[in-house]
Structures are given as C-alpha cells and as structure tokens.
Amino acid sequence: MSRTTFDLDALRSFVTGMELGSFAKASERLGRSTSAVSAQLKKLEDQAGTAIFRKAGRGLMLTEAGEVMLGYARRLIDLNDEAASAVRDVELEGWVRLGLQEDFGEMVLPQVLGRFARAHPKVKIEARITRSQELAERVMAGNLDLALAWDNGAAPPNSDPVADVQLRWIGPANVDIADWHVSPLPLVSLEAPCLLRTIATERLDRADRPWRLAFSSPSLAGIWAAVAAGLGLTIRTDIGLPPTVKALSSDTTGLPVLPKIGLRLHRKDAEADPVTQRLAYILLQAARAALPGNQGQARLRSVA
C-alpha cells in the first residue's frame, strides 16, 4: 500500500481559510491567488481520497473527514513550524501584550503561557483579563498587541472572526429548573455596559417575559457565586463553567431561545511581528480546543 504525503502548503491554506472563515481572505493572508488556493484544496482532497467539504447553502462546510483533516493539519503545521525554528536556532526575544475575556482566563491562559514560554523563554508576556469592550478599545489604542474577545457588533481594523458560540441560560447546579418559572425572572449580570446583559434583556422583552436585575458584579467570579447561590440566572456560553452552575435548556424552562455570539481575535497591527504572530497562533489553537463540540469549526462565509 502506497503512503500518502500531504502537501504542507496546501494544509496551511486549508487551515488559514478555516480560521479566517474565507479562502479569499486566506489567499490575501498567504500572498497567493484565489485560484492557487483553490488548486491546493483540490490537491488536498485528491491526496485524502475523499471529500473534505460539502455544500451548505451558498457556502461550504467541512465533511466528517474534513473535520478530522483540520485537526491533523493544525498539528502538522505546528510541528513543521516548531521544527523550522529549532533547526535555524532562532530564539524569539521581546515582549507581547495579550488580552483575554474572563471566560478564557482559567481555561486557556495557563496552557497558552506554558506552551509559549517553553518554546520561547526569552519573550515576556503581559496579560490582561477583562471585558470585551475594554479589550477592543485597548487594542485600537495600541495598549494591547492581541486580544480574544466577544464580538460587540463592531469590526475594528485587524480583527478576524474565530467562531460563533452558542449562548446559554445558566443556573445553579443544584436547583430544579421548575423554580425558574417565576415572574419577574431574576437576572444576574456583569455591571453595565454588558453585551450579554443587553442580549438577555432584549430576548426577554421580545418574549414579553418580565425580568428584574437581582445581582450585578464587576467580575465573572461574582456572577458564578451569585448564580450558584440561587440569586438568579445569567447567560454565558458553555466555556469555563464552574461545577456549581449548569446550562439550562430553553425547551424545558420556557426561556427565550438565545443566539450565538461571535468570538474575534483583535490585532494591533495588520502585519504583526514574529513574536505576536507566534502567540496568536498558539492562542487560536487553545481557544478552539476550549470551544464546546464543533463550534470551532466555523462555516466558510465565502470561498475561493
């Protein structure tokens, strides 16, 4: 049986297109024509011996084989890049300023810092954990080099979509869902302005469901404590939920169905320095691994 050797350039185009949600954008990022990227993807399918894309409306989505391929492609590219750096004995130096949502602080930050520090011990990282609006503003002001934040509706320069993540009603782990058929519904939220608080109240208003603000906090830790104590419900994603709370189903609670929320990676510069580029790559890998189910497999909005 002959062995298959996948084309690393084709794998890189594949991964970049999935990360950006568009192979047209991938061609720009990689400095290739859209026709060249299309040819690479066709070559990749030929090498795989099976379809890795399927039509979904006016776009494309990954097949089951494509999802498997994407995971291996990321690992192969990462190993290739690490090997190239090791062989050339290039040691990155400098420092980079990173911003993260609180949701990703405990789950993503430790592994990002650990992996990056082991590979590049001479680089210093300054991390800031705060809310999405502040993160985007700090990147635009030049006070952060990278930030992973929820999409607040604006699309600042040098900002790329990472994934669309389902929002959930979150309640205490040890309280029966029947207890939330109360009126007005008690809400737990971050202090205003809060993007998720706005989404929750708008959905409740549309459903003519009375609500009251039962508790507000400046931190996510305060939110989890209040929800666990049974003071009310909040909305969040499945990412980083502590064991004291749980996601509730709109079908069983009668609560309004919630939308998905976009996750974006903000960069200070369109062409980042090697230190920032490397950290951004590791950050995206860790963030996607933290996403529940296959929510990290973004649908391609446009294709080459």
Explain this structure:
The protein is α/β, with parallel strands linked by helices and 304 residues long. The chain contains eleven helices and twelve strands. The protein has helices at 8-20, 23-30, 34-48, 64-88, 102-105, 109-119, 132-140, 195-206, 220-228, 250-253, 274-290, and strands at residues 53-56, 59-62, 94-100, 123-129, 146-150, 159-166, 168-172, 185-190, 211-217, 234-236, 245-248, 260-267. Strands 4-3-5-12-6 form a five-stranded mixed sheet, with helices on both faces. Strand 8, helix 8 (195-206) and strand 9 form a beta-alpha-beta unit. Helix 1 (8-20) crosses helix 3 (34-48), helix 1 (8-20) crosses helix 4 and helix 6 runs antiparallel to helix 11 (274-290). The two termini are 33 Å apart. The model is unreliable at 294-304 (pLDDT under 50).
Write the layout of secondary structure elements.
Layout: H1 8-20, H2 23-30, H3 34-48, E1 53-56, E2 59-62, H4 64-88, E3 94-100, H5 102-105, H6 109-119, E4 123-129, H7 132-140, E5 146-150, E6 159-166, E7 168-172, E8 185-190, H8 195-206, E9 211-217, H9 220-228, E10 234-236, E11 245-248, H10 250-253, E12 260-267, H11 274-290
Parallel strand pairs: 3-4, 3-5, 8-9
Antiparallel strand pairs: 1-2, 5-12, 6-12, 7-10, 7-11
